[in-house]
Amino acid sequence: MTTNFYKLKSINATLQKNQSKGFTLLETLIAISILLVAVIGPMTLLGGALNKIYYARDEMIAVNLAQEGIESVRQIRDTNMLVRGSESPTPTTPWDRNLASGDYIVDIGNLISCPSCGAGGDPVVFDSPRGLYRQGTSGLSTSFSRKVNISGSGDERTITATVTWNTGSTPGSIVISNSLLKWVP
Questions:
Q1: Contact between residue 99 and residue 85 where contact means Cβ atoms under 8 Å apart
Q2: pLDDT of 126-174, one tens digit each?
Q3: C-alpha to C-alpha distance for 22 and 128, rounded to whole angstroms
Q4: pLDDT for 58-89, tens place per residue?
């Protein structure tokens, strides 16, 4: 009887060892679920953060393009004022020469009248040899469009630069406005 008892004890110990060596299907599914949650959560946050980073980059470019439009108009006004100052005894060049009311595009410092520019303006291209954005036909196409509007009369002009773009499927728009005055009589 004692021999049978030891045999049973030995068989029982062997069965217990074999049962504790592996994972059950349920334990494996729970472990996989925990890993998926731990990996997918941060990946989703990272994907959203990347979209926001690209949008912020494009917004920064758009602000600079709009500011460049304003500065181009200001440069024309300042050139007119310098020419007026050099004319003596009576200036003949109007301070607002080439600053008539209307819509314009800016191509490397030049204002080009654009009466047919739509609400979004004219496309902006990237001139890679120069490293510049410009409006024109030569260059890499971008998702940006720019329009500069001049309005007003008398001794004041209101300049409004509008830049629109798409970052992926997210549209963006920047509008900057500034007043130019006849600062020299």
A1: no
A2: 888 888 888 877 788 899 999 999 999 889 999 999 999 999 889 999 9
A3: 61
A4: 999 999 999 999 998 999 888 888 888 888 78
pTM above 0.70, yes or no: yes
Question: Residue 131 CB: number of other CB atoms within 10 A?
Answer: 7
Does residue 154 fall inside a structural domain?
yes
Residue 72, domain member (yes or no): yes
DSSP structure string for 88-141: -SS--S-TTTT--SEEEEEETTEEEE-TT--SS-EEEEEETTTTEEEESSSSEE
164 closest CA partner among 124, 126, 113: 124
What lies within 8 Å, CB to CB, of 57 at 6+ separation is none
Q: Token pair 């217990």 is at which residue?
A: 16
Closest among 163, 176, 182 to 99, alpha carbons compared: 182
Half-sphere exposure of 3 (CA within 13 A, CB side): 0
Looking at the 3D structure of the chain, how many domains does it have? 1
Let me know how long the chain is: 185
pLDDT tens per residue across span 13-48: 665 555 556 678 888 889 899 888 888 888 777 777
Domain housing 54: 45-181
